[in-house]
């Protein structure tokens, strides 16, 4: 990628490289990192599943085990999405590089830079919030150890664990190895969530920058049409024959310039649509699976929080997980809304153009652009569910409905 692109996407590159998801990494590094991480994740999933089969009673009583199992499954899905779809990731990155080479107008380049900076800030902010929430979850086992030092009792406080799992041996005898294992697994799982989500937001942010650049080019055409230069032919009716011919030539040249500008805009708009379609096809199954699982997790978390109202320390980590789940659901839907808004904005700007000052062939191109922009670009989950903020609200409502249903099963 170009040096400017590397400068803005270097954080995403570092993140993706940590789990073997960056396309230019060697095959050995990709296989090694993904194997180590998946071993940790699926070992925990196996232990949670075994624990669930041993102690299964009802949904409400085994809610904690179900939550942890689903969270680990989400981490595995995200890991395999990034690793197994590495060719698609490489293709998306190559398209970004291509776009930076064809959007060469100074205004377009500035817009791409501005959106890349915003995307970088979004990556940092999202990672910061998720890791802060993770810290609340990781503090639970450490609290008794800290209290034994700060406020000691006549006897040591009992150990607390991140996951209530039967490892097949005495947990207290191997408390610290278990603690290290669960910490590493949790950090890996959360890191995968952050890396894949921020990569997804990066790709969507670039798509928004393409539509924004095209919209500004349309505004420039409008300003040119409304300028004094393009209206000279209506100012003086008392023109000589030669002057009239000269004005006709100037007007023809202006129409020719506008026509070629519209051709360029249509070409770039088609390229942007193709990029969004490929992005949608690359993440549609991923989005559909995660939406369903996240809604179930939010419902279980609500049940778990209600059952721990008298245990404030335990309740804190589930509140943090609930906030993180809502944030994750928001991240899945908000990028789709941004693409819808930016693609619709092109229709508004093209509609407001001074078409009556254009030549016939220019207005034909404008009508093609209006027809294509009438239906906004969207990101979907499974090709059946449009990701948007309106549907985000319906998903939150659905999770509350599932929460009520599961609670009634107690």
SSE blueprint:
Blueprint: H1 3-17, H2 27-55, H3 63-84, H4 86-102, H5 106-138, H6 142-150, H7 175-225, H8 241-307, H9 312-351, H10 360-373, E1 380-381, E2 385-386, H11 389-408
Antiparallel strand pairs: 1-2
Measured by DSSP, the beta-strand proportion falls in: under 5%
Structural class: mainly alpha
Q: What is the number of helical segments per DSSP (H or I, 4+ residues)?
A: 11
Q: Outline, from the CA principal axes?
A: elongated
What does this structure look like?
It contains eleven helices and two strands; from the N terminus they run ααααααααααββα. With 410 residues, the chain is mainly alpha-helical. The protein has one domain. Strands 1-2 form a two-stranded antiparallel sheet.
Overview in brief:
The protein has 11 helices and 2 strands, in the order ααααααααααββα.
Task: Provide the descriptors you would attach to this structure in a database record.
two-stranded antiparallel ribbon; 2 strands; 77% helix; 410 residues; mainly alpha
């Amino acid at each position: 990628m170009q040096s400017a692109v590397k400068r803005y996407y270097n954080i995403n590159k570092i993140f993706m490289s940590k789990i073997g998801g960056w396309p230019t990494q060697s095959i050995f590094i990709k296989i090694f990192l993904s194997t180590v991480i998946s071993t940790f994740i699926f070992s925990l999933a196996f232990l949670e599943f075994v624990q669930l089969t041993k102690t299964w009673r009802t949904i409400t009583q085994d809610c904690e085990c179900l939550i942890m199992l689903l969270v680990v499954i989400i981490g595995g899905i995200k890991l395999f999405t990034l690793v197994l779809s590495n060719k698609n990731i490489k293709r998306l990155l190559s398209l970004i590089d291509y776009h930076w080479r064809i959007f060469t107008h100074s205004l377009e380049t500035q817009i791409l830079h501005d959106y890349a900076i915003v995307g970088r800030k979004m990556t940092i902010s999202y990672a910061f919030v998720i890791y802060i929430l993770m810290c609340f979850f990781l503090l639970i086992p450490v609290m008794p150890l800290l209290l034994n030092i700060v406020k000691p009792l006549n006897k040591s406080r009992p150990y607390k664990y991140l996951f209530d799992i039967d490892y097949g041996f005495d947990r207290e005898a191997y408390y610290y190895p278990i603690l290290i294992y669960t910490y590493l697994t949790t950090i890996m799982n959360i890191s995968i969530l952050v890396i894949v989500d921020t990569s997804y937001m990066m790709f969507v942010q670039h798509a928004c920058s393409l539509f924004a650049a095209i919209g500004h080019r349309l505004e420039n055409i409008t300003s040119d049409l409304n300028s004094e230069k393009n209206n000279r032919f209506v100012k003086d009716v008392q023109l000589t024959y030669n002057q009239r011919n000269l004005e006709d030539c100037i007007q023809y040249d202006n129409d020719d310039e506008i026509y070629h500008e519209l051709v360029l805009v249509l070409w770039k708009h088609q390229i942007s649509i193709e990029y969004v379609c490929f992005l949608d096809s690359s993440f549609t199954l991923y989005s559909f699976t995660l939406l369903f699982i996240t809604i179930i997790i939010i419902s279980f978390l609500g049940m778990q929080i209600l059952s721990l109202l008298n245990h404030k320390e335990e309740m804190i980590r589930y509140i943090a997980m609930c906030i993180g789940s809502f944030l994750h659901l928001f991240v899945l839907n908000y990028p789709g809304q941004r693409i819808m808004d930016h693609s619709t904005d092109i229709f508004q700007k093209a509609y407001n153009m001074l078409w009556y000052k254009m030549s016939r062939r220019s207005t034909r191109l404008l009508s093609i652009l209006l027809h294509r922009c009438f239906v906004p670009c969207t990101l979907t989950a499974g090709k059946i569910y449009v990701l948007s903020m309106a549907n985000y609200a319906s998903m939150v409502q659905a999770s509350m409905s599932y929460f009520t249903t599961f609670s009634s099963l107690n």
